[in-house]
Design a protein that fits this description.
The chain has 371 residues and is an alpha/beta fold. It has helices at 8-20, 26-37, 41-46, 60-67, 72-85, 137-150, 163-173, 191-202, 221-231, 247-257, 274-281, 291-297, 317-325, 333-339, 344-356, and strands spanning 89-92, 111-116, 124-129, 154-157, 178-181, 206-209, 235-240, 261-263, 286-287, 331-332, 360-363, 367-370. It folds into 3 domains: 8-85, no CATH class; 101-297, Rossmann fold (3-Layer(aba) Sandwich), CATH 3.40.50; 317-370, Orthogonal Bundle (Arc Repressor Mutant, subunit A), CATH 1.10.10.10. Helix content is 42%, strand content 13%. It is elongated.
């Protein structure tokens, strides 16, 4: 072999990265190249693509596109350079940043583009829903996500407006881990994502995409990325979805992948909940009546250990400070606001967190006591 050829493992990574970046190749075309290459990656990456592409059964449009490439090695170098410019990591199957559960999925991408920090192994829940829930529901979704994050589950969603965004923010409220899978490249964010992504990254979370740099979102990319959301999770919970909601694509993927699916029931007259109710009616999903149901589906016991006096683990900093101000004697909201360094909205959010976890109780007159 010529000394300029790459070692086979590195050559395979280059080939897969380059092929995945060619529009139209996809999982099917990649499989055809794999079969034809039969492990000869080192030869393939250094040879002009036009010398071998006609031997592979690919669509004519894809083959024409590939003939214009100099070599797979050159394409891989360009993609890596653009990823580095966008502060992205390129992670392959088996790399530390590649979601472990996603490697089990038949059509998982060979590479992902990543920004942020991937935390230690843990159980993870995909929390998804409509972009347009009825007024007031986003607070409920955010609180739900905060509770599962406080109890140790990672929260995965799609960074879209509406329920997805609320779930990411709920995990951040709780100081928990959250991953977002985008329907665009990581350097082609929409306006809503441009506000959310920095918050996820600053809190130690991660954002992923299977799309190489420069690819904008489209009607095709969103349904495709939903298989990554479900495939990276231990269970999927649909919190709110209409009959035509894109969240139902995640349900379809989850069922193919063997992931448990749960749905939060809604009022029968609520159009935004009709998709959830139909999932339950047809027994496609199990009812999710509480965060504990979701946690158990993901393999966690759903319980919250009793707090040790003077030490309350898994609470957000604001809730921890408010918990320290509470006792068995009820205190008025105004008193707590005067004694804390929190604004009214932040104080109320912290008290809601404590109530959801069973650590505080509200008595009439907005008076709060420690449980």
């Amino acid at each position: 072999m010529d000394a300029t050829f790459l070692p086979a493992p590195v050559a395979e990574r280059d080939a897969l990265l380059a092929l995945w970046a060619v529009p139209g190749v996809g999982s099917v075309g990649l499989g055809e190249v794999r079969r034809w290459a039969d492990g000869r990656w080192a030869d393939l990456v250094a040879t002009p693509v036009r010398d071998w592409v006609d031997a592979i059964p690919l669509a004519d449009a894809v083959r024409d596109r590939m003939r214009g490439l100099r070599s797979l090695r050159a394409v891989a170098e360009v993609v890596r350079e653009r990823a580095a410019q966008g502060q992205m990591q390129v992670v392959h199957h088996g790399d530390a940043g590649y979601p472990e559960r996603l490697t089990e999925v038949a059509d998982a991408p060979p590479v992902l583009f990543l920004r942020g920090t991937v935390g230690p192994p843990r159980r993870r829940l995909a929390l998804v829903g409509t972009r347009h829930p009825e007024q007031g529901f986003l607070r409920r979704a955010r609180e739900f996500a905060a509770v599962v994050a406080l109890r140790g589950a990672g929260v995965i969603s799609g960074a879209a407006a509406g329920v997805d965004r609320a779930c990411h923010l709920g995990a951040l409220d709780a100081g928990g881990e959250t991953w977002a899978f985008l329907g665009s490249a990581l350097d082609s964010l929409d306006a809503a994502q441009e506000r959310l992504v920095p918050a996820i990254l600053d809190a130690g979370g991660a954002i992923y995409s299977e799309l190489p740099p420069g690819i904008r979102a489209s009607r095709q990319t969103f349904p495709r990325r939903n298989r990554l959301i479900s495939g990276s999770a231990d269970a999927v919970v649909v919190l709110r979805a209409g009959e035509q909601s894109g969240a139902l694509h995640t349900v379809h993927a989850a069922r193919k992948q063997g992931r448990p699916v749960l749905a939060w029931p809604g009022e029968v007259w609520a159009e935004a909940a009709r998709g959830c109710n139909l999932l339950l009616l047809h027994r496609i999903a199990r009812p999710c009546l509480s965060p504990e149901d979701a946690l158990r589906a993901a393999g966690l016991d759903g319980s919250m250990p009793a707090p040790v006096p003077g030490e309350v683990p898994l609470l957000s900093p604001a809730a921890r400070s408010v918990y320290a101000l509470l006792s068995r004697t009820p205190r008025a909201l105004e008193e707590l606001e005067a004694d804390s360094a929190l604004g009214t909205g932040e104080l109320i959010s912290a008290l809601c967190e404590l109530e959801l976890l069973g650590l505080a109780f509200q008595s009439p007159g907005k008076r709060y006591e420690r449980v």
